[in-house]
Amino acid sequence: MLDPSQRALIKATVPLLESAGEALTTHFYRIMFAEYPQVRPLFNQAHQASGEQPRALAEGVLAYARHIDRLDALGPLVARIVNKHVALQIQPAHYPIVGTCLLQAIREVLGADVTTDAVIDAWAVAYRQLADLLIASEDELYAASAAALGGWRGARRFLLARKVVESEEITSFYWRPEDGGPVAAFIPGQYVGLRLQVEGEEMRRTYSLSALGDGTTYRISVKREPGGKVSNALHERFVEGDGIDLFPPAGEFVLRPGSHPLALISAGVGITPALAMLEAALPSGRAVHFIHCARHGGVHAFRGWLDGVAAAHPQLRRFYCYSEPRDGDQADAQGLLTRERLAAWLPDLRRVEAYFLGPRPFMAQVKRHLRDLGVADDRCHYEFFGPATALE
Ligand SMILES: Cc1cc2nc3c(=O)[nH]c(=O)nc-3n(C[C@H](O)[C@H](O)[C@H](O)COP(=O)(O)OP(=O)(O)OC[C@H]3O[C@@H](n4cnc5c(N)ncnc54)[C@H](O)[C@@H]3O)c2cc1C
Ligand code: HEM
User: Fold this and answer.
1) 358 inside domain
2) Which domain holds residue 321?
3) Known catalytic residue: 36?
4) Dist. CA 302 → ligand 2 center (Å)
5) I want to staple 54 with a disulfide (CB 3.0 to 4.6 A). Which of 26, 62, 107, 254 is the partner?
6) Helix crossing, 95-110 with 14-35: angle to 10°?
7) 63-67-69 Cα angle (round to 5)
8) Coil, helix or strand at residue 18
9) pLDDT tens per residue, range 320-360
């Protein structure tokens, strides 16, 4: 337990973490990957190169130091970290590695003037406290996955049952367990972790489940990223019957039950969790406004499916917005998704529950527009297809 003087020491490092937090976490990852190469495959190296993961960790460490007196204020952050960790199978044995490297980075980046023995001791206790909290929450989720009907713990081998091209960039992959058993139910919006070998290197990635499924398969829908290791391997190399390791579903960006009108707003491959959410919401009769933005018809996935669903469900209204339409493309709007368009397409702004996902600039804009239109923050839910960072 941290004593009051240790809490004060942690809080005194907040201004330094504000200015040097990213330098600290960037240095931390450098140390960890050099000293403990066994943890490297857990991490997406693109998120290291872009700085997104060091930034997300720096924001996390800073939030922790700021709220050291009131850890309950960290709730949503903890849930996000725990779910991401669980999808990638972070284990208790990994925590001492991170702790050792983090303390070394604190010492080396913040300098000897600041990092007295007392400060380092305080951070060591604070780290253990946070690690214990995360380990306990992660253990609960691991246990719940193992106990669920069709659930499991750790890696389970799945075989590719079907591969369906959805657009010029997105392909769906249907996975069936090799053991022939059922698969655990999941909450729409959740994702699975994948583990595979690419050019002799182990890689892990998370993909949203893009269909509710029938209890025997999971579907993910993957955009081919130019230069992307896993998405290209899946698109190019995988054929029906090929195997992959899947970790059980996790994620806290999930459809909350309710009767308020639902706005599912997506751009590009951000459509994937919205598809499962839509499938789950339709039987309740709840009004759904499905807004999807794409560059043009060629990269607009699932349009035929969605049009079919809309024809059969009067409570579903869908709108398409193309930023770079090709000749002959038909959309409800052209250009970017403006506030005026959102206002016109979402008539019940005071009651609507909005879920949105897409590239970060798109999400920042949607968040701003929804706020301007009077949609309360607690009715705006969003996910990042990478490490989370502040949208404003
Ligand atoms: C919760 C969640 C859900 C997701 N759901 C989906 C989904 O439903 N569908 C989907 O398609 N994606 C989804 N993603 C994204 C997915 O996990 C991958 O990040 C994505 O497929 C890219 O992986 P990749 O291996 O193909 O590309 P990466 O190898 O990660 O590369 C991504 C980009 O970074 C560049 N890059 C790679 N390595 C380096 C380096 N060392 N230095 C500089 N640049 C580099 C590459 O050229 C490429 O442009 C989701 C992500 C999250 C976090
Ligand atoms: C107290 C300790 C820890 C904290 C505060 C922490 C914090 C975070 C944060 C903030 C994220 C980003 C979440 C998001 O996507 O928004 C993250 C992701 C992640 N964490 Fe941790 N973490 C801790 C321990 C660990 C440990 C012990 C490991 C394993 C070595 C680990 C591995 C990962 C991985 C692999 C990711 C995803 C990175 C990616 O996208 O490439 N973390 N963590």
Assistant:
1) yes
2) 262-382
3) no
4) 33
5) 26
6) 120
7) 160
8) helix
9) 999 999 999 999 999 999 999 999 999 888 899 999 999 99
